[in-house]
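Job type: complex structure
Entries:
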Amino acid sequence: MAKSSPRKKRTQPEIPWSPRPEGSKDLVWRYPNNPILGRRAIPCAQAIYNSAVIPFEGRYVGVFRADHLNGMPNLHLGWSEDALSWKISNDPIKFTGGDAAYRSGYGYDPRVCRIGADYFITWCADYHGPTIGVAKTRDFRKFERLENAFLPNNRNGVLFPRRIGGKYAMLSRPSDGGHTPFGDIFYSESPDLCHWGVHRHVMSSGSLWWEGVKIGSGAVPIETDKGWLLLYHGVRSSCNGFVYSMGAALLDLEKPWIVRGRITGPILMPELDYETTGSVPNVVFPCATLHDEKDGRIAIYYGAADTHVALAFAWRDELVAEILKYPVGK
Ligand code: BMA
């Protein structure tokens, strides 16, 4: 067989970053040029938000939630050299394989997780109600649809980036078919990404106001020597509807249903115009991070007001140290 010529390996570009504004003591601060994507970013879409990005072969690739002009959310692929300016396909991702029944319907709130040589997309898929769709790719060209992970209704399925106790592991949030006035985070494991079980309760919506209604996992957890750093969304009810903010917790490395710590307040609340105004006002919805393992810088990608993709920054070790001031340890 003829050998293909070796492809030149591209160096992975630095993650986006801007330093904490002078004088600020915030644990998380925003990218000054936010939002990075928004309405009409591609011709078919009326809004792009709640999207996930990941480094891939010297570039960045993203799976974007694009709400089409007919109102239906779909998943679209995008590429970027700097993870800030994105070229997004106007056609939704086409999945192969899986049961034909799983291929239709809407798709929203994607997360992307690398496990070894495989990349997995998990998202909110339509199967007689919202549930967790799963697809696998190695090249971001072909996407193989796997079985849905759970029964409806479920949202916010987030994989861990390695097997735990030899099993694939996922966080999810059982819900209802509507806007869900409740919701806790659960842990499940699977030997093969098809059969899921050993379900464990992780965290409940808080007794505190800002997350009193429901919580849901946000970005793929970041492994640290103190535990899994989990950024999540917490929701409160106001006289004008739900308000989505961002929280942070630390889960045990080998038994992630054990919460080691959880900051009692939000680390980012809707505050600026692009977070408080849009298709759904007052939404900050984290879906992904880029992480520099060497120095611990984190770029957080979050949906803003169900309209834009925005970016915020934090230091991993500062977040972990802060979380450990609020030990839980059940
Ligand atoms: C949730 C999800 C998210 C959305 C949020 C606020 O239930 O549908 O996609 O960002 O509501 O509208």
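Summary: The mean pLDDT is 95. Residues 164 and 255 are 8 Å apart (CA to CA).
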